[in-house]
Amino acid sequence: MNCLIGVLLILTIISCFYYCFAIYAAIDFFKNTPPTQKKFLPAVSLLTPICGLEWELEANLISFCQQEYPQYQIIFCLQNSQESCLELLHKVKDKFAHLDIQIVTNPQAIGNNLKINNLANALNMAKYDILVITDSDIQVKSDYLEGIVQPLKDDSVGLVTCLYTSLTKGFLAAFEALAISTQFHPRVLTARKVEGIKYAFGSTIVIRQKILAEIGGFLRIADYLADDYQLGNLVAKLGYQVVLSNYIVAHRLANVTWGDFLARQSRRAKCIRVERFWGYLGLIVTQGTVISLILLIATGLTQWAVWLCLLTWMLRLLMAIIVGVKFLNDSVAKKYLILIPIRDIVSFLLWCYNLVGNQVNWRDYKFELAKGGKLVKIKLLGEVGKQGNLE
Fold first, then answer.
1. Among 223, 70, 47, which residue's Cα sits nearest to residue 135?
2. Among 31, 76, 125, 249, whose Cα sits 20 to 30 Å from the Cα of 206?
3. Whole-structure pTM value
4. Which residues, in sequence order, are CB contacts of 87 under 8 Å at separation 6+?
5. CA nearest 39: which of 72, 74, 70, 73?
6. What is the pLDDT of residues 245-280, one digit of tens each?
């Protein structure tokens, strides 16, 4: 028991230092404003893979069409010509007839990742060297393209990606999204400060076609579940910088069931464990809320453990307030801040649960995650293409 208490004590103290460092990393990121320079405004091709008629899809797509940017092309790509959203896509295209908008419907597949199949089909239609890849559940402001391409002025930058806030519909969607700005993004900002960014997020990926070709194109990642991680990681391995933009986009999440919640969280956790096992184990030091609570129980509610638990929880909430509320201005973090301890407990249980097992359900298929996060299809669970984002 003394050994267990000692381990829990060390982990709790490390967690407290982590929360403090995450706050410092966030301040460093958000306060470090790039110097004003002449605007870099190259022509870009914006690629958005779509699957299903999801919540606020029309508003999301319209936001891409309202860019204050001199020259850009938009490609909406999907595989199924019978998709329920196809009529909506043509409606958006007709509404913005003055823009260069293409709708690509192509069932051709180069791998098991449906999103990458869509992007590979759209790539043939891309006119410009700079590609902006974004999920269809993302909504942006009119200065989006101008903001995200600026780092590419530096030829050493190979890829740009973005953090995101959440707008949700329904309590469970909000409960899931609460971890994004208050748990996931602090980890990202900490990693950026410690080792730099070596991965990307599907919310936004900006990459030159020539660099995409250097890493082997979309074919290289067509069988991987975490395609965004793979893109960023492969670019970093080539020696290019992966830059985290200071532009924040908005993520939409709605109509979440407990099955959706558990499946999505398990997919992400197992991807991290399969791709970066030691990194996954290291996430234990970010779970101070639960570790300090276990320590408190293990010591029989001794006074010093009570004070340490209170300190840990205070630092955890302070990190959430500074990162999620102050800097990201996340509406979910503001509204549900009081639920962070419960969300942390659920995250810890999911972390434990996903320490074993490599099978995941994604869309209507069951897959086995092979070494490195590669998808091996096991069986069809249902009809493909019913609803939702390809994430």
1. 47
2. 31
3. 0.89
4. none
5. 70
6. 999 999 999 888 998 899 889 988 998 988 888 999
